[in-house]
Amino acid sequence: MPENSTTTTTASSTPPASSTPKPAGTTSKPAPAAKPKPASPSTPASPSTSTSTPAPAKPAPATTPASKGTAKPAAKPAEKKPAAKVEAKPAEKKSAPAPRKWEKKAPAPAGPLPKVVDASGLVLGRAASLIAKRLLQGEHIAVVNTERAVVLGGYASLLEEYRLAVARGSVRKGPHYPRRPDRMFRRTVRGMLPFRHTKGHEAWARLITYVGIPPELEKLPRETLEGARPRPSLRAPMTLGEISRHVGGVGPW
Q1: What distance in Å separates the CA atoms of residue 195 and residue 189, rounded to the nearest whole number?
Q2: Domains contained in the chain, CATH given
Q3: What are the angstrom distances between the C-alpha of 36 and each of 45, 48, 61?
């Protein structure tokens, strides 16, 4: 019995032989060798299977051994510099816009304060003759509200007379008759002075005329010329400002 059990166990462990016999003269082919798997980039390949040369190792930085018994000096704290004082700049004042041609005002009179004469409602010729006499006596006179001075006569004849005066001469050589009321008043006074002589020229230089009332003369007392008042009339006379607009003067009068 023991011999039979051993024989049965050996037969069961060995695989059964193939039932088909191999022909004579044939040799069994060897099994193909397994290809080596490429090494992953993260895991380095073993030196037996890897064919690439290893990268040279970087040399470690040279370190000098610290001397025994000597301690490194402590770094000094950075000194804080005092903050620079910033001075506050004064606010810049905005400059006023440039005045227009008719808004330009004559410069303030130099020297003694002039006597201010208000030309509102005064006849142009009569007021000019009285002012010319006072200028020859050495007075400094400033005439304000020249656009309100009146000119007696018919409307058509006055306008024709002033238009001819403006159109006279040439643009290059003149004479150039003014078109602003203040300059027309000053030109009328000049016709009643010996302008070609030194005395008359100096007297004319002491006269200043304005359209309206400038701020530097508002606080000064103003006077009028009673001898230059017009007679009462049913028809209102033409003012110097109206004549200026008709002959081409540009301004708010």
Answers
A1: 10
A2: 109-246 (3.90.1180.10)
A3: 11, 11, 39
